[in-house]
């Protein structure tokens, strides 16, 4: 689909500032040059009360990944707070995403699958909310793709898993060396989040190098 069309309007939906670079950088870097790419983050990442700073980092990261800051949205909704123990209401999620989908005439939605890479409840809530949007509203011409979660073992195989994905994935996006440097720059833009284990993540996580997307039919 992506290779046969240009100028699709694509909306990536994430839960927190830095999700776009931690998990989806290969997708954004491969699709943003040929399509009209938007990123919608459903929280300011204010769990540690620095949401104001994380909003700035989000904009910088998206810019590095090739997404114009006018197409990078971050919202502060009382019902969608950054909290690993909070289950977001799927109806609220679907209604928020629906508003942006209709306003910008989106053709393709991209988000997490039912495990959300790490099992984070906010990630899973987006999966449920977007699926509800597709099921309930049936917007004509709208497609959904989800980022495939893998086992913890595969998650930290880095470039070794790229070889595995090349042989078995139907739809995957890979980072070239030049693109990986951009993905790294986007991660480093989130300076408030760069703890020691984030540097380990950069070194070993396959999501910095490859994204496998799964088309979802309704």
Automatic annotation (TrEMBL):
Molecular function (Gene Ontology), one example: N-acetylglucosaminylphosphatidylinositol deacetylase activity
Gene3D superfamilies with a match to the protein in the record: LmbE-like
Signal peptide (from-to): none
Documented EC number(s): 3.5.1.89
Top-rank EC class of the record's enzyme: hydrolase
One example of a Gene Ontology biological process annotation: GPI anchor biosynthetic process
Recorded superkingdom: Eukaryota
One Gene Ontology CC term in the entry: endoplasmic reticulum
Family (UniProt): Belongs to the PIGL family.
Protein name: N-acetylglucosaminylphosphatidylinositol deacetylase
Organism: Helobdella robusta (Californian leech)
């Amino acid at each position: 689909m992506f290779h046969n069309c240009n100028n699709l309007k694509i909306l990536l939906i994430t839960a927190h500032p830095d999700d776009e670079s931690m998990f989806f950088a290969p997708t954004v870097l491969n699709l943003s040059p040929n399509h009209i790419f938007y990123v919608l983050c459903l929280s300011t990442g204010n769990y540690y009360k620095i949401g104001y700073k994380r909003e700035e980092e989000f904009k910088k990261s998206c810019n590095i990944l090739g997404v114009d800051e006018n197409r990078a949205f971050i919202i502060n909704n009382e019902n969608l707070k950054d909290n690993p123990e909070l289950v977001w209401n799927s109806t609220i999620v679907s209604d928020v995403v629906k508003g942006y989908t209709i306003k910008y005439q989106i053709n393709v939605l991209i988000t997490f699958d039912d495990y959300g890479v790490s099992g984070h409840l906010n990630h899973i809530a987006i999966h449920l909310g977007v699926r509800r949007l597709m099921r309930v509203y049936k917007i004509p011409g709208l497609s959904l793709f989800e980022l495939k979660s893998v086992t913890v073992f595969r998650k930290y195989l880095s470039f070794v898993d790229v070889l595995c994905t090349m042989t078995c994935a139907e739809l995957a996006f890979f980072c070239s060396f030049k693109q990986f440097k951009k993905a790294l720059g986007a991660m480093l833009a989130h300076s408030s989040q760069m703890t020691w284990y984030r540097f380990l993540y950069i070194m070993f996580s396959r999501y910095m190098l490859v994204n496998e997307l799964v088309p979802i039919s309704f």
